[in-house]
Amino acid sequence: MPQDKEQAAYWYRKAAEQGSVDFKYNLALMFSRGDHVPQDKAQAAEWLRKAAEQGYGPAQYRLGLAYHEGQGVPQDGAQAVEWYRKAAEHGVVEAVFKLGCAYYEGEGVPQDKREAAALFLEAAELGFVEAQLKLAAMLDRGDGIEEDAVEAFFWYYRLANQEVVSAQYRVGLMSEQGRGTYWDEQWAVHWFSKAAHGGHAEAALNLAQRFARGRGVPKDPVDAYTYLLMYMGLLPEGQEPAAEAVKLKTELERQMRPKSRAAAQEAAARFLKERPQAGR
After folding, report:
1. CA–CA distance from 231 to each of 90, 203, 269 (Å)?
2. How would DSSP label each residue in 10-77?
3. Which of 23, 53, 150, 203 could bridge to 195 as Cys pair (CB 3.0-4.6 Å)?
4. Greatest pairwise CA separation for the chain in angstroms
5. Closest CA relative to residue 206, chosen from 253, 102, 198, 215
6. Which sign, positive or negative, has the C-alpha torsion 223, 226, 227, 228?
7. Which helix (H) or strand (E) holds 153?
8. CB count, 10 Å around CB of 187?
9. Are the C-beta atoms of residues 93 and 81 closer than 8 Å to each other?
């Protein structure tokens, strides 16, 4: 290890031993990452504990993660929940979300989806995207709580405007169905298009079917075939395309001239070259 890094680690440890919670926390991160010191998850957890016991919220949250994942300490769901709860009380929004996940899954606490939803709402209102998505899905499905399509749409729409592609797809689907919002084919197409170009396979298939049938868009076999190829290219490796997609591909190939098919293949290939990842 270079001497300057050894010196940095030495002074961090000295400051941490003298009681500085910031230095304890940062020393824990150094051990966790192997930054300036040999990586040592057990040492990381020990320094996290020292900072956590001084009431430092970020350390409490990371100690909860360590117990949840069994990193440097024995895996212990109940201990993870205890530290998440302490961190949440200190305003760490990630801990509020993780506590919600614990109640949702019944990890370290008895399963309680209503409590999970309340915690997701708390984190969602603080702008935490993962919590907004979990809450929207629970409301959409009536998963452990009362189904509320209007409230689900509210959260999906908020997420869609943050470029969360799975939410863009849900906004398109709910607009197409008139569920939780008013029925609007053009609005549905708008959000399906954003989701598809963000890498969402099912949104691309929806558009392929629309262009093939002229539903909400002008009928256009080339666009239909392009989106169909995008759909197939966006599927996770090893996943077979839906039967309806295979049938549509055969149908379109019968209709199209070789030149039109080549144009669609080229357009889809250009899109897939960058291979957008559909994120959340």
Report:
1. 44, 8, 11
2. HHHHHHHHTT-HHHHHHHHHHHHHTSSS---HHHHHHHHHHHHTTT-HHHHHHHHHHHHHTSSS---H
3. 203
4. 78
5. 215
6. positive
7. helix 149-160
8. 17
9. no
* Residue 96, token pair as written in the block: 């509020």
Q: Quick check: 119 and 138 in contact, CB under 8 A?
A: no
SS3 content of the chain, % helix, strand, coil (to 5): 70, 0, 30
Q: How far is CA 179 from CA 38, 148, 151, in A?
A: 55, 10, 11
How far is CA 29 from each of CA 48, 112, 194, rounded to the nearest angstrom? 8, 33, 38
Q: Which residues contact 249 (CB under 8 A, 6 or more apart)?
A: 225, 228, 232, 241
Question: Which residues are CB-contacts of 257 (< 8 A; sequence separation ≥ 6)?
Answer: none
Token pair for 26: 């940062």
Length of the chain: 280
77, 83, 96, 95: which is closest to 51 by C-alpha?
A: 83
Distance CA 207, CA 220 (A): 11
CA 26 from chain center: how many Å?
27
Both tokens assigned to 191: 């959000």
Q: Where are the alpha helices (DSSP H) in 180-220?
A: 185-197, 201-213
Three-state DSSP at 216 gives coil
